[in-house]
Write a structure and sequence with these properties.
Length: 650
């Protein structure tokens, strides 16, 4: 179906208003205006959505604009796991399912009630304490999507240790960098994991990561695959053995609202990943309130977010947000297409999922495999569909709405980032007019703006850079160990604003359209990958003199990785070498960063000061001809452009 064939606006229907907090556009507008007029009063009122050990905060918000020091509810005391677990146990939800864990094999299932979750998390917390982990210590977690991952994360939060989850698809090098950057004391990993019917190795990679010497004193290893693994005497311990001695009671540590909760590494425009730091109070509050409003979760419903806990979406909307709101959250170990292309729908049907939250990549992939795989399942339990991680094109949006949601379910296209902690721009079911491909309205307290290069405000409908006017409760507080980079990347680009790195456009209805990254960060199958990280890996190969990496549009993955390499003298481009380069990237970064195309080049377009012009390479990779490239006269060697166009691989 062409773009023109899809309705432009889908107003909320009567049934979408049932049971959700905000029931009309007017109500949204009224509360939104209030929240912008006096954000502190708004958030102080909202603070009652969670429980505090003490609400005696010094002030709701302190914001030192010059040094970008931000604190919310400082002096207030809480523990996020009290909100995610204990308060539900105390309030009659002890026997309600908190986590439904669905393993890759269909009969591999575990359901944990809130009562059982308290038991499990408390034991793991005591196990960590017994290994000397205390408040403020860093714990790296490198696990597949198994229940122990959830327990480990929550156990850290319970004792005030700072967790740093490293996605299982990252390589040993990436793990090493993430361990050494924050000086982790403990690493929690497993013998391996299952993915698409195959066992993958994690312990081997963990061993490799630790080989060079790190601050890690203890490695705790979960048994998952039963694979033979090398355990180092004195350093490595089996999780189940340590757990046998752990007591099931563990009082939650009293945390200040501004104590660190976790670090999560994300890609930026240099090769070094950024350790985004979130703190306890504002993050707990914001993820809870956004979860309640955007998904309109209702008691008894089953909520499923298909992300991996290794990414921010899993942190905020598999674990913390849903659990704090007392939801039943599904944690899925598998992949969308194993054992068959209908796996998601079979799981949704089996657990009678009401709210389903996934990435456009998955939507496009399933659209391609055909509607029959969906139609064979009863998906009538679905009430709401969500999308996150990359722009969703109107056609994929409409297919999701039509075929998956049976035209009953609102689709919430939620825009946010690792740095923002929670959803920033999204429709509210029951209040917002949906527009396919549009993230629509800012959440309460969030004021987005599109600006030009010179910082002036864009006109209605004009493409610009997306910035946010002032801090909100779940904004990152700093980059671990690098406050200057935090200021330079996010706050000094357009002084006075938080710069998102995304382009955007605001239309005549005040709806925000996200246009994708304007920096050198790519989104491959919804995974955020820095061009510079891939380039650094390529340059590590002895044949490579220089490399430039750009995204090209990809039908399923949204973007794929296109590589230009200039070889050192004495090396010839060949398929063999291509294979080696791919292996190098997979080794240094991980399989998620596998290049799709490698073009050998005689030279790369550079400014006279030597800066590689990725803007031009992006256009060439995408099929652009000389006349599409804009002004190339400032290049040190303009001829290189024609050679690159001639050598383009499609
Ligand atoms: C992109 C994921 C368009 C965006 C939660 C952002 C989106 C980056 C959307 C952050 C959306 C996320 N529409 N683009 N609904 N959601 N993005 O840190 O470019 O992994 O800057 O956080 O994903 O990726 P991250």
């Amino acid at each position: 179906m062409s773009d023109e064939g899809i309705a432009k606006v889908f107003p909320p229907r009567e049934e979408h208003r049932k049971g959700v907090p905000i029931k009309s556009e007017e109500e949204y507008k009224r509360i939104y205006d209030e929240s912008i007029k006096d954000p502190e009063a708004f958030w102080a009122k909202m603070a009652d959505r969670i429980e505090w050990f003490s609400k005696d905060w010094d002030s709701v918000l302190e914001y030192d604009e010059k040094d970008v020091r931000i604190s919310w509810f400082k002096g207030g005391k809480l523990n996020i796991t009290h909100n995610c677990i204990d308060r539900h146990v105390n309030n009659g939800r002890k026997n309600q399912a908190a986590i439904i864990w669905q393993g890759e094999e269909d009969d591999d299932v575990k359901v944990y009630t809130y009562g059982q979750l308290l038991y499990e998390v408390s034991r793991v917390a005591n196990m960590l304490k017994a290994k000397g982990v205390g408040k403020g210590d860093r714990v790296s977690i490198y696990l597949p999507m198994i229940p122990e991952l959830a327990f480990a994360v929550l156990a850290c939060a319970r004792i005030g240790a700072i967790h740093s989850v490293v996605f299982g698809g990252f390589s040993s090098d990436a793990l090493y960098n993430r361990i050494t950057d924050c000086d982790s004391k403990v690493l929690i990993t497993s013998d391996g994991g299952f993915r698409g019917g195959k066992a993958i190795d994690l312990k081997g990679k963990a061993n490799e990561a630790l080989e060079a010497g790190t601050t890690v004193e203890t490695v705790i290893v979960v048994r998952r695959t039963g694979a033979d693994v090398v355990m180092e005497e004195g350093r490595d311990f089996w999780y189940h053995e340590l757990l046998a001695d752990a007591e099931p009671q563990c009082e939650p540590e009293v945390m200040d609202a501004e104590d660190p909760l976790f670090i999560l590494y994300t890609s930026g425009s240099t090769g070094k990943p950024k350790g985004v730091l979130h703190t306890c109070g504002g993050y707990n509050l914001y993820t809870t309130v956004t979860f309640e409003h955007i998904f309109g979760y209702q008691p008894g419903e089953v909520y499923w977010c298909t992300a991996d806990i290794g990414w921010i979406t899993g942190h905020s909307y598999i674990l913390y947000g849903p659990l704090s709101a007392g939801a039943t959250t599904v944690m899925f170990e598998g992949v969308p297409n194993y054992p068959q292309p209908d796996r998601f729908w079979q799981v949704a049907e089996k657990w009678k999922v009401n709210v389903f939250y996934t990435a456009p990549t998955a939507v496009r992939m399933m659209r391609k495999t055909g509607d029959d795989w969906i139609k064979m399942h009863d998906l009538s339990s679905l009430r709401l569909l969500g999308s996150v991680g990359e722009p969703i094109d109107p056609e994929a949006w409409y297919w999701y709405y039509d075929v998956v949601g049976g035209q009953r379910c609102p689709v919430v296209d939620t825009w946010w980032q690792t740095e923002t902690g929670g959803i920033m721009i999204s429709p509210l079911p029951g209040a917002t007019n949906l527009k396919p491909g549009c993230a629509t309205k800012p959440f309460f307290g969030i004021e987005p703006l599109t600006i030009r290069e010179d910082r002036s405000e864009c006109d209605v409908g004009e493409n610009g850079r997306l910035v946010i006017k002032r801090p909100w409760p779940s904004i990152m507080r700093t980059l671990w160990g690098d406050h200057e980079r935090f200021k330079d990347t996010y706050w000094n680009v357009y002084p006075g604003y938080y710069f998102t790195g995304d382009g955007g456009r605001i239309d005549e209805d005040g709806d925000v359209w996200i246009l994708g990254r304007v920096d050198d960060v790519m989104s491959v199958a919804g995974h955020r990958i820095g061009a510079a990280e891939v380039e650094a890996a390529l340059i590590g190969h002895p044949a490579v003199a220089e490399a430039a990496v750009v995204p090209v549009p990809d039908e399923i993955k949204g973007e794929a990785i296109y590589v230009f390499v200039n070889l050192k003298d004495g090396y010839e481009g060949s398929d063999e070498l291509r294979k080696e380069l791919v292996a190098q990237v997979r080794h240094d970064v991980g399989p998620i960063a596998t290049p799709k195309i490698i073009q050998f080049a005689q030279g790369l377009p550079k400014t006279r000061s030597g800066k590689i012009m990725r803007r031009i390479l992006r256009k060439i990779a995408g099929g652009g001809m000389h006349e599409d490239l804009g002004d190339v006269s400032t290049l040190a060697d303009p001829d290189v452009v024609d050679q690159l166009i001639a050598g383009r691989i499609s």
